[in-house]
TrEMBL record:
This is Dihydrolipoamide dehydrogenase. FAD binds at residues 48, 313. Its cofactor is FAD. It holds the Pfam family Pyr_redox_dim.
Length: 468
């Protein structure tokens, strides 16, 4: 029986464990913090649960346009209920994952694992486990999966204190909402929290080192998010790189590299993540990492050392739970001799959970504009969609990219309150090489937001060639 040891129990680790157990391997998973890992306990699950509360408040605010009037002074958001729900839901999700792993026969050890081979180049590997109970154990493995994830990046000049200068993992211990939250860093994490706190009624200033929010996302989409954010009272400091964050009495002072200062009651540091790859014995097995600390892997999750795979945020391939999970599964299928399709990043659907959401799949508008990918693009504002009008939805759009000669759908962007749900038909088109005509001939519900996807298909279908 193949002995598999998995270091880390986030989506990369636990999904890999489930696959390996299904194939009859002897699987041991070592996780420091709890089943589900950083994703479930601190990052993805808590943030999306918090954002759900913010969304509920937004729905109440926006209901007046539909004739349901709730005076703002009557809307109260109970911070203890919100934070309590976030924490208990994360723990419940973690417990569910733990129970599933146990029922599939995965052995779990709570502790910290490190590679401990006596020399590089061995066929089987040794893993030293420092148990949370103080007991050290040594395991032997034919296959190892490193799935140790990543942690918030800390700037020396802005060290979180857990009270007023915070990482996103410390937010849910606050007893009151901040009076004025300064969010530093306008990547996906910063944009999501800035939007959520703004929607929940907290004064927010977003410090963006670039000209705009979400520099890596579709520019049209980012413009909508910025407009909604500022329309609802959010402040934006552009071209603003934080040099330091310090406390002064009940305030935090963010000093920017150009000397400007932003003052608020709390600062949330969202300046990226660093991989958890230090001190895990990579040198013992001969895995070399660049300065970034990310472990290089190929498209079936192999590291440079035979029998050792890596998956998820510790590889830096695409820091998403869905990608981490697929990398983990692919590693196990490959290790256990199953024919496996290599990871295809082109078909990954991703979503930014701002208000409204941004969902994307396939090639980007930036690649089309740069001339790297020839494509025809069509964008349709949701304000022209009948269902959107009925529900009072004004902001948002659907955009499709197709190959000019064949009409094959190669990318899409949706900006809408539930874009994460609407992106699936476009993702299926990209994954399966469907054309604009395939979308055009599909019957969508009337009235529906997805009707705009088939409508764009109809407008683009003559590029399939038939209509000249
Ligand atoms: C605020 C935030 C929100 C996010 N929201 C989303 C989202 O909505 N959708 C999405 O797809 N992605 C989201 N992500 C990204 C997603 O959380 C990560 O891509 C995902 O967690 C990666 O999974 P992983 O298994 O690689 O690592 P993790 O989930 O970080 O799990 C790794 C685990 O390994 C443990 N570990 C580390 N070292 C050791 C060791 N030596 N021994 C044993 N255990 C160890 C860690 O304690 C950790 O629990 C979000 C990220 C952040 C920061
Ligand atoms: N919904 C989701 O799927 C979701 C949510 C959150 C994070 N993630 C993933 O996690 C990964 C990390 O995202 P992230 O947003 O945490 O990190 P990031 O590295 O993408 O963004 C950090 C931002 O902070 C800025 N920054 C760095 N130092 C700064 C300073 N001193 N002052 C001001 N700005 C500064 C950077 O320029 C960058 O724009 C991404 O790959 C993302 O896809 C996904």
């Amino acid at each position: 029986m193949t002995r598999i040891v998995i270091m880390g129990g986030g989506p990369a680790g636990y999904e890999a464990a489930l696959v390996a157990a299904q194939y009859g391997a002897e699987v041991t998973l070592i996780e420091t913090d709890g089943p589900g890992g950083g994703c479930v306990l601190y990052d993805c699950v808590p943030s999306k649960t918090f954002i759900a509360s913010a969304g509920a408040r937004t729905s109440v605010r926006d209901a007046d346009e539909l004739g349901v009037i709730v005076p703002p002074q009557k809307v109260d958001v109970d911070v203890e209920v919100v934070h309590g729900r976030v924490k208990s839901l994360a723990l419940a999700q973690s417990a569910d994952i733990g129970a599933r792993l146990l029922s599939e026969g995965v052995a779990m050890i709570a502790g910290r694992a490190e590679l401990a081979d006596s020399a590089p180049g061995l066929a089987a590997h040794r893993i030293l486990v420092h148990g949370n109970d103080g007991v050290d154990t040594v395991l032997e493995a034919d296959v190892v999966l490193i799935a140790t994830g990543a942690s918030p990046r800390i700037l020396d000049s802005a060290v979180p204190d857990g009270e007023r200068i915070l990482t996103w993992r410390q937010l849910y211990t606050l007893k009151e909402f901040p009076e004025h939250l300064i969010v530093i860093g306008s990547g996906v994490t910063g944009a999501e929290f800035a939007s959520a706190y703004n929607e929940i009624g907290v004064k927010v200033t977003l410090v963006s080192s670039r000209d705009r929010v979400l520099p890596s996302e579709d520019a049209d989409a980012a413009a909508v998010i910025e407009a909604v954010f500022t329309e609802h009272g959010g402040g934006l400091a552009r071209r603003a790189r934080a040099a330091s964050v310090v406390r002064e009495g009940d305030e935090v002072v963010v000093t920017l590299t150009d000397g400007r200062q932003v003052r608020g009651s709390h600062a949330l540091m969202t300046v990226g993540s660093i991989p958890n790859t230090a001190g895990i014995g990579l040198d013992k097995v001969g895995i070399e990492v660049p300065d970034s600390g990310f472990i290089p892997v190929d498209r079936v999750s192999r590291t440079s050392v035979a029998g050792i795979y890596a998956a998820g945020d510790c590889t830096g391939v695409l820091m998403l739970a869905s990608v981490a999970a697929m990398q983990g599964r692919i590693a196990m299928w490959h290790a256990l001799g199953e024919g496996v399709p290599p990871m295809r990043l082109r078909t990954v659907a991703a979503n930014v959970f701002t208000h409204p959401e941004i969902a994307t799949v396939g090639i980007s508008q930036a690649e089309v504009d740069a001339g790297t990918v020839p494509a025809r693009t069509m964008m349709m504002p949701l304000s022209t969609n009948p269902r959107a009008k009925m529900t009072g939805m004004r902001n948002g759009f659907i955009k499709l990219m197709i190959r000019p000669a064949t009409g094959i759908v190669i990318g899409g962007v949706v900006v809408a309150p539930e874009a994460s749900e609407l992106i699936l038909p476009i993702a299926m088109a990209v994954q399966n090489g469907l054309t604009a005509k395939d979308l055009a001939y599909t019957l969508s519900v009337y009235p529906s937001l997805s009707g705009s996807i088939t409508e764009i298909g109809r407008r683009l279908m003559h590029y399939d060639g038939d209509l000249g």
